[in-house]
Each structure stands twice: as C-alpha cells, then as structure tokens.
C-alpha cells in the first residue's frame, strides 16, 4: 500500500510499504478514507522525539477515519463496513482507565500513539492496523460528518481537554495563546464552558481575524500582556490556555494569569532546560496543568455538541490534498502558508 513515511528531518515521502495484517485476535484493519496532519506531527517532521531515535522509513500520522475491512476472531462489536474514528492514541482496552476512554494513562503501560515510530505505524496511509479494536475505535455516529469525525480523533478532543484542564467557570476571563486549529477550536469550546471574555493571541493577523469572527478579542503577542492588564484593571486572566509550547509563550501564560488562576498547557515544549519561573508561580499560587488528551474519553461530551451544531470543528479545514501530495502538505503547514489551517489528506 501507499503511505507517508519519515526519512529524516524535513523529509516525508510518499512510499510503498507492506500492507498491515492482523497480528492479534483483537486487531482490526481499517481502510483509511481521510487523514489529517496535527501540529505535533511537525516535531517528527523536524526530526525530534521518537522519530529521531527509532530510525527512518516508518509511516507517520495519528488522525484518521475510515472503514473496517477485517477483524480478528476476538473482536465483538465491529464488523466490516463500519465507519470508524481512529483516535490518535490507543491503550490495552481492558484496564479501568482504558474502559473509561483514558487510554493515554493505560494502567498496563500499553498506551501508544500512532506514527511515532515503527512499533505502531501511523494512519497517514491507505490502511492501518488498530490493536484492541473493540475499545480503540469509535463508530461514527449519525449526524456526524466524515470531516467532523476526523476532527474528533485528536484536534477538537485536545481543545476540549485543554479547556477542561483550565477549569473554565461562568464569566471567566480566558486567554488562548496560539491560534492554530486547536487554539481556534478552543474559542467555541470556552464559550460552551461559560467563559465571559476570551482574549486570543497569535502573531499571524489572518488567524487573529478568524478569532475575532468567532467572538474573541485578538491581540499580537507584543501587545498581549499590557492589553489584558488594562482590560482587567490589573487583575489579569482567570484562566490561560497555552497551545504553542515555546519557551516565550509558556512564560507569557504564567505572567498573564491572575493570582490563584489556572494555566493549562497543551503545547509541546522540547526544551529540557526551560527556565520555569517557579518564584512567580509560587507567589501567585498558580495551578499549572500539562498533558495530552485521550480522545475516546471526550467523545461522550463532544459528539452531542457536534450533532447539535454547537461545535463546528470542520470549519477550520482549509486544504484538501491527495496522499501523494503529502510532502507538500507538510511543507505548507511548517511554513504557516497563508490560508492553511487544517489539511485533510485523501488516500
């Protein structure tokens, strides 16, 4: 089959790879109908993380939807032809955390993310093997489009996770740092959770304009701290969501939050020497949370909101390309090309 494979920093290729096969009686094979690129895929693209240590030539990607084509003898709830969501992360499917959908914290230590290395090949491919398929796949419900389901496999789930970790309460002043697709999705998410006023920060004017249309107060980074200080009469933000992961934006988040406020971080920082401002955080009494989402855990909340039209994550899809154009898709995303937010790739 064909797949997008990592061959080194800035080198993603449209390759021929072995077809996936069932390895366990609980495996499910899925024909991918659409996949997408996550901002965190760029860390692999740049040569960091598992991609740097586990070699080259493996399939990447962790956001996809598709159709079941084959199931192992131990699969009970899925049949060929079922339309399914493939979440970014999977677990053992039998511990209490996994049964609640909290697969990123599998109690048996079997949590994995698609596309971080050869151990679990990614889903930017024509097909993918999903372990423990009964528990690690979700049927696409009625009233949810393919595009919407694709956003639920990670991006919208991550926006929800980040906002939930921020403990948004009715009337809160909420700041979002970073207006990629997830940061923009967090605007509608925060409104549903009750935020009273939302400030949105990004250096790219095009993205700030989108945030304004969604009802946020947009700002460039160089004006943000003083603007929020002025608008809150010095009190600063109740809650802050950091969706970038850079040293500067993490420091900004901690500076912008009020005393006894909450900072929620979903951006990925690769700097082991990040100078965390412990003194300021201690003085303010800040609650600081950081982590990654388990998409299945969020679906029971997100699916009804999508079905009701209260969340429209598909609105941030800007680009559609064929799998054979995957290298160009990565180049556009990495360059922050004008008009490019979320790219859907069709095998």
Structure notes:
The protein has 347 residues and is of the alpha/beta class. It has two domains: 2-154 and 294-346, Alpha-Beta Complex (Quinone Oxidoreductase, Chain A, domain 1), CATH 3.90.180.10; 159-290, NAD(P)-binding Rossmann-like Domain (Rossmann fold), CATH 3.40.50. It contains 13 helices and 17 strands. The protein has helices at residues 41-45, 50-53, 96-99, 133-136, 146-152, 155-165, 181-193, 205-213, 221-231, 247-256, 278-284, 295-307, 326-334; strands at 2-6, 12-16, 28-36, 64-71, 83-86, 89-90, 112-113, 127-130, 138-139, 173-177, 197-201, 217-219, 237-242, 257-265, 287-290, 317-322, 342-346. Strand 10 (173-177), helix 7 (181-193) and strand 11 (197-201) form a beta-alpha-beta unit. It is globular.
List the helices and strands and how they pair.
Blueprint: E1 2-6, E2 12-16, E3 28-36, H1 41-45, H2 50-53, E4 64-71, E5 83-86, E6 89-90, H3 96-99, E7 112-113, E8 127-130, H4 133-136, E9 138-139, H5 146-152, H6 155-165, E10 173-177, H7 181-193, E11 197-201, H8 205-213, E12 217-219, H9 221-231, E13 237-242, H10 247-256, E14 257-265, H11 278-284, E15 287-290, H12 295-307, E16 317-322, H13 326-334, E17 342-346
Parallel strand pairs: 10-11, 10-13, 11-12, 13-14, 14-15, 16-17
Antiparallel strand pairs: 1-2, 3-4, 3-8, 3-17, 4-5, 5-9, 6-7
Keywords:
Rossmann fold; 24% strand; Quinone Oxidoreductase, Chain A, domain 1; 2 domains; 13 helices; seven-stranded mixed β-sheet; 347 residues; six-stranded parallel β-sheet; alpha/beta
């Amino acid at each position: 089959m064909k797949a997008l494979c990592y061959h080194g920093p800035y080198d993603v290729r449209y390759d021929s790879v072995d077809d996936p096969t069932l390895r366990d009686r609980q495996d499910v094979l899925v024909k991918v109908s659409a996949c997408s690129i996550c901002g965190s895929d760029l860390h692999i693209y740049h040569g960091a993380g598992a991609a740097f240590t586990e070699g080259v030539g493996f399939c990447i990607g962790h956001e996809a939807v598709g159709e079941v084509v084959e199931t192992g003898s131990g699969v009970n709830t899925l049949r060929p032809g079922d339309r399914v969501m493939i979440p970014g992360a999977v677990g053992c499917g039998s511990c209490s955390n996994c049964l609640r959908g909290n697969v990123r914290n599998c109690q048996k230590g079997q949590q994995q993310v698609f596309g971080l290395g050869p151990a679990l090949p990614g889903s930017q491919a024509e097909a993918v093997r999903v372990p423990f398929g009964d528990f690690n796949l979700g049927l696409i419900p009625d009233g949810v489009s393919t595009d919407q389901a694709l956003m639920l496999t990670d991006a919208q789930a991550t926006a929800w996770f980040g906002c939930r970790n921020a403990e948004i309460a009715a009337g809160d002043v909420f700041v979002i740092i970073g207006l990629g697709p997830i940061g923009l999705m967090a605007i509608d998410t925060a409104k549903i959770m009750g935020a009273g006023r939302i400030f949105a920060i990004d250096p790219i004017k095009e993205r700030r304009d989108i945030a304004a249309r969604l009802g946020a107060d947009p700002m460039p980074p160089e004006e943000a701290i003083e603007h929020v200080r002025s608008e809150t009469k010095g009190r600063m933000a109740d809650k802050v969501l950091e969706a970038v992961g850079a040293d500067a934006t993490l420091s900004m988040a901690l500076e912008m939050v009020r005393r006894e406020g909450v900072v929620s971080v979903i951006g990925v920082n690769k700097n082991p020497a990040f100078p965390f401002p412990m003194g300021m955080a201690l003085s303010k009494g800040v609650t600081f949370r950081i982590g990654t989402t388990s998409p299945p855990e969020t679906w029971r909340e997100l699916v009804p909101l999508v079905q009701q039209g209260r969340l429209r994550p598909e609105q941030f899809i800007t680009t559609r390309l064929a799998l054979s154009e995957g290298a160009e898709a990565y180049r556009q995303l990495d360059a922050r090309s004008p008009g490019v937010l979320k790219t859907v790739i069709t095998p």
